[in-house]
Amino acid sequence: MTISDVGPSQDQAYYRDTYLFESPAQVVAAGQDDDGAWVAVSPNIFHPKGGGQPSDEGTVNGVPVVPSRTEEGLVVLSGDGLALDEGAEVVCAIDETLRKRHAALHTAGHVLGHLGEARGWQSAGHSHYPGQARLDFSPEGLESELATPELRDAVRAELQEAFDAVLARGGAVTATTDDSGHRTVTIEGVNAEPCGGTHVSDLSQLKDVRVLELKVKRGALKVRYEAEHA
Ligand SMILES: [Zn+2]
């Protein structure tokens, strides 16, 4: 069996439930490549790196694995010492603290992106990595608004205030996937965006959200931020 044969049959459980940290699963494909042994399991609880969000970390039957996504869209788990055949029943587990941290940062990134766009800013990129989370916007037309450190800090404070207001209102975070596999993430009262990442299930699960700094660097307005899972 080739990867493209099993791609559609892998159930991406992490799309439905951010808080599924451990699950039994079945090996639907297994093989060896230059990096060693790999398996694909279903249901799959591992988020592979992508969309600015880092990979989950975790284990299959206690063996540490690194998830990645193939060109065909299959999530495969690579690990030294994996020796599993197709059809094997396994237990998968992910690092709960890391998953929740990634989900908090990612969800906060959606909200901050919306707040920037509400000011008329054009999104130009994002990273949701812990310790270096930031959104990029096009700086065109913002020269006077952001000319000095004082002005940039005033805008930062406005973004923080707007973010705090969103959190005070609260809102559910839900995801739907259509028949062709396109996933849309909706934050109640904020926006709906196509996204393949993991998110908190309600804005009340975010805490310590801080807009840290605005900087214009290498042709982009970079807005750094921080967020924790409650
Ligand atoms: Zn997302």
UniProtKB/TrEMBL annotation:
GO terms for molecular function: aminoacyl-tRNA ligase activity; ATP binding. GO terms for biological process: tRNA aminoacylation. InterPro entries: Alanyl-tRNA_Editing_Enzymes, Thr/Ala-tRNA-synth_IIc_edit, Transl_B-barrel_sf, tRNA_SAD. Residues 183-215 form the Threonyl/alanyl tRNA synthetase SAD domain. Its cofactor is Zn(2+). This is Ser-tRNA(Ala) deacylase AlaX (Editing enzyme). It comes from Arthrobacter woluwensis.
